[in-house]
TrEMBL record:
Record-linked InterPro entries: AAA+_ATPase, ABC_transporter-like_ATP-bd, ABC_transporter-like_CS, ABC_transpr_CbiO/EcfA_su, ECF_ABC_transporter_ATP-bd, P-loop_NTPase
One Gene Ontology molecular-function label: ATPase-coupled transmembrane transporter activity
SMART domains named in the record: AAA
Membrane topology: Peripheral membrane protein
Protein name: Energy-coupling factor transport system ATP-binding protein
Family designation: Belongs to the ABC transporter superfamily.
Domain ABC transporter: 2-238
Keyword terms of this UniProt record: ATP-binding, Cell membrane, Membrane, Nucleotide-binding, Translocase, Transport
Highest taxon of the lineage: Bacteria
Keyword ATP-binding: yes
Localization per record: Cell membrane
Gene source species: Paenibacillus typhae
Amino acid sequence: MITAQNITFSYRDGQRRLPVLQGISIHISRGEWVALTGANGCGKSSLVRMFNGLSIPAAGSLHAAGLDLRSAVNRTAVKQHIQLVFQNPESQNIGSTPYEDVAFGLENRGLPPDEMDAQIRRVLQQVGLAHKWADDITTLSGGERQRLAVACCLALQAEMIIFDEATSMLDPAGRSRIMALARELWRRGTTILWVTQRPEELAESPRVAVMEQGTLRYDGDPRTLFYSSGLPELLGWEPPPVIRIGRLLQSRGWPLGLLPLSELELEAVL
């Protein structure tokens, strides 16, 4: 789905260029769930915006959904395959109602009215907003607006959805619903790139990529990351309670493969 080879990127600040990405190489296969993390300013958002054609690397090669993103035509076309859900729920809604918001992208595709209506109602039902299809969009909660953003991605039949810290401005209930929705889409075959700074969300991801100062420091499984890489300590992370208990077990000689990552795994261990 994504193949990046040695890509670099920088911003211009007056006469200077400030490096943002430095030699990033990563491959994401169709149907994968990958969690991407790193401190603010490490380059996460710059990287994922390249993946759906919002910007281009200064050097290196980048292919998304089989398209070479050095081409302006391909950067436009890739948005049919890869969609972004942004951090701020209010920054991505266009219509005055959920129905109109989903309709906007479909109208740009030129869908017939009957087909468009059926598609809108289907995706609103899928994200749990069918009963609010005609509500004023400003009356929706932050979590509902994020689910509406996901509905817009689904209506466009995105093969990959990038959640760029999409739960960071939500309460625990809202975060839980967005995570559950993303996992259901993943089980149905959608490729998910989950950008987060929450260690507990990393621990529940099958694959984790860690960025620091524009470089990729780690790309692998979460158990190795938390228990044997030494990177969380180096970066000053506060480990989740489950990991703290797991490290106590590790100090008592428990093998890596049995150390818990989730509450369910901890329950099984105990």
